[in-house]
Amino acid sequence: MPRLVTAFSNPLIKRVRSLREKRHRRAEGLFIAEGLRILAEAEQAGRLPLYLFYTEAMRGHPLVVRLAAAAESAGGEAIETSLDILHKLSGKDNPQTVLGVYAEFATDLSRLDRSAAGLWLVAQALRDPGNLGTILRTGDAVGAGGLILIDDCVDPFSVEAVRASMGAVFTVPLAQARWPDFLAWLRAGPATLVALSLRTDTDYRAPAYPRPTFLLTGNEAQGLPADYEAACDLTVKLPMRGKADSLNAAVATAVMAYQVLAAHDGAAA
Amino acid sequence: MPRLVTAFSNPLIKRVRSLREKRHRRAEGLFIAEGLRILAEAEQAGRLPLYLFYTEAMRGHPLVVRLAAAAESAGGEAIETSLDILHKLSGKDNPQTVLGVYAEFATDLSRLDRSAAGLWLVAQALRDPGNLGTILRTGDAVGAGGLILIDDCVDPFSVEAVRASMGAVFTVPLAQARWPDFLAWLRAGPATLVALSLRTDTDYRAPAYPRPTFLLTGNEAQGLPADYEAACDLTVKLPMRGKADSLNAAVATAVMAYQVLAAHDGAAA
Fold first, then answer.
1. Scanning every residue of chain A, which has its alpha carbon at the shortest distance from the alpha carbon of B142?
2. Quick check: A63 and A41 in contact, CB under 8 A?
3. Which of A248, B157, B203, B262 could serve as B31's disulfide partner, Cβ 3.0–4.6 Å?
4. In the prediction, which pLDDT does A93 show?
5. Min CA distance, B115 vs chain A (Å)?
6. Which residue of B has its CA nearest to A256?
7. Under an 8 A CB cutoff, do B248 and A134 touch?
8. What mean pLDDT do residues B201-220 have?
9. Cross-referenced Pfam families, in alphabetical order (chains A, B) (predicted)?
10. In the predicted model, is pLDDT for residue B269 greater than 80?
């Protein structure tokens, strides 16, 4: 039986709302995902919400019925509530009518199997949650083995990052590591580490990108530290025909990722 | 001589702050751009601020000195102010220390010369200002002739769109049109209209993309209306190896734009 919660002062509402802050997410090991589409992705990836919130209008929706039953039989809870409460929980002006609270995943490097994919994404000191989520979404599209976050990146479990990932946070393996630990892991097996650079003459379309290729993207404002770039096996450049010398970080990652995919498909043909 | 303004109640501060709302931008024909980098792009593109705001710490910065002199001799005004005021004007938690108020540009289709470039970007009913700005930034990078906004898109002069464009709002020609007017203009000359589609077997790497190619991107949630897609000369698909069936709109536009650039470069070689 779903519980009915409509009071802003309800302790669970306060607790879930606090998950919009990173320190509370870390303390609880929980994060928020919103919207039917993203919750359906989570279900397909075998992830059930610990708490499932939905509005009265969604009570009979097949996915809500299924998720509520599955969550409850796994020890979770289904909660019918108001759009106002969902607005308060998500912080969004036009909140989704369904919201789930999920357990965070372990994100240590040792969980990754580099032989599982020919392409991996790596991002360093990424600051914008929208960019992080968008890179996850691209990672899903190109069949990347996972996304490895280096140094102090924005939290991949933030509401904004999860939203921009369109569910890819549930389907693309995530890891977090400091640079020296990442490099040690990387060099313990086959890997070609690739980055965009302004200091190279190699066009991004030239290399064959040996499998597995790890695409390294730097911070939005600073780019990659010089010694990180020097540690790469390969640096390439994108044509820049305009006034600026850089692309949005998520855009640059996607253009590169699709080129690696094309190089791999060409080699396989 | 710069004016010193530090009171939140100053009428100019209230007026500039109101430019964060679209109706005030339209009524005044003005918009806000922030940050040294973006204001430098504007200057290089021949655009001077009508009002230039900067903090005391920036008083002696070469660009600020030059912009202030140029703005004043063109009838504009330089205003020294506080970081608190800049925070209020930009709505940003960590405001830039320099902010300019600019006249909006005319955005009618007739200003565009299709022979000026081999690649043009077109976006329909785009909702997210970050996506719009990011597409402008990509348009600059690929040397697109311009960005044409179809139907009800988010305002390209919004603070968020200008910010995401990283100055490309000043360097990439912009036009706005309803679909029938765009189509009439498009068909009055040479043009290949291209869109991504889930209902085609043509890989995005196959076509030669005759010049000028117009890349059409649809709304983030709905994609393109079926009749808009049917009006295209060419529909292509991107490999989608994951669970989802779409990419972020700005990401998809960029992957396509770089492929068109590669096809054109290959044909020219």
1. A241
2. no
3. B157
4. 79
5. 17
6. B255
7. yes
8. 97
9. MRM3-like_sub_bind (PF22435), SpoU_methylase (PF00588)
10. no
